[in-house]
Amino acid sequence: SAVISQKPSRDICQRGTSLTIQCQVDSQVTMMFWYRQQPGQSLTLIATANQGSEATYESGFVIDKFPISRPNLTFSTLTVSNMSPEDSSIYLCSVEVLADGGPAYEQYFGPGTRLTVT
Amino acid sequence: RKEVEQDPGPFNVPEGATVAFNCTYSNSASQSFFWYRQDCRKEPKLLMSVYSSGNEDGRFTAQLNRASQYISLLIRDSKLSDSATYLCVVIGNDYKLSFGAGTTVTVRA
Questions:
Q1: By CB neighbour count within 10 A (0-12 exposed, 13-18 middle, 19+ buried), where does A105 fall?
Q2: Greater confidence, A101 or A51?
Q3: From CA B26, how far away is CA A66, in angstroms rounded?
Q4: Measured between CB atoms, which of B43, B97, B102 is closest to A112?
């Protein structure tokens, strides 16, 4: 398993501003992911962040709006830029680790950042 | 058609009851399957992986039916603490996770 922390846990931001969310893992992982979960809905993958390369964005998400950094194997940031009320959501980072006994991989999630844009 | 579909519920059951629900997936080449539990305003937490032969963890039993493309979760002897939303997660042959919208279970005293 993996222990993941996120900062901030929640924030209320004004329209047009940007917020950077930090994700820290207690072990080195290759694959880190950023998800969004809007109220009452399931998780939507924003992008995959691998250390040493540019993040890979899913359809509907672009780097200008959601720039991601991955400076090392235990840390990543997601920035929500030029926010609008539609960006109000929970943002979660997750990591993929080898299951105990292998060979399959399992994903573990951070506690999430609850963002409200006014 | 959604890649992963779940009955949203809610399933309202008394303590001690057995509750079971399924999740269907559309990609026949899907490789891995999981059940996650998500409590209100919390992150999803891995409940169990689902193996081809089916697996059991205490009161929880998960099964995979590849022919009919569904996985199931059965909870025996329900506890109040089992109240949560259960998310079905499927990994396709592109190694990407697809999430179901979740099945809500409410266990009442």
A1: middle
A2: A51
A3: 30
A4: B43
A24-64 pLDDT, tens digit each? 999 999 889 999 998 888 899 999 998 878 899 999 999 99
The residue type found at B41 is R
Interchain pair B32, A105: CB under 8 A: yes
Q: How far is CA A1 from the centre of its chain?
A: 18
- Please answer whether residues B84 and B60 qualify as being in contact, where contact means their C-beta atoms are separated by less than 8 angstroms: no
The b/e string for A9-46 (b: 16+ C-beta within 10 A; e otherwise) is eeeebeeeeebebbbebeeebeebbbbbbeeeebbebb
A41 backbone φψ class: left, alpha, beta (φ>0; ψ -120 to 50) = beta
| pLDDT, averaged across chain A | 92
B92 touches chain A (CB under 8 A): no
- Could you give the angle at the alpha carbon of A46 between the alpha carbons of A113 and A37, nearest 5°? 45
**What gap in Å lies between CA A59 and CA A44, rounded to an integer?**
10
Mutating which of A43, A44, A45, A105 best tests the B interface, going by the most B Cβ atoms within 10 A?
A43
Q: Determine the distance in angstroms separating the CA of B64 from the nearest CA of chain A, rounded to an integer.
A: 16
Quote the pLDDT of residue A118: 95
Would an 8 Å CB–CB cutoff place A108 in contact with chain B? yes
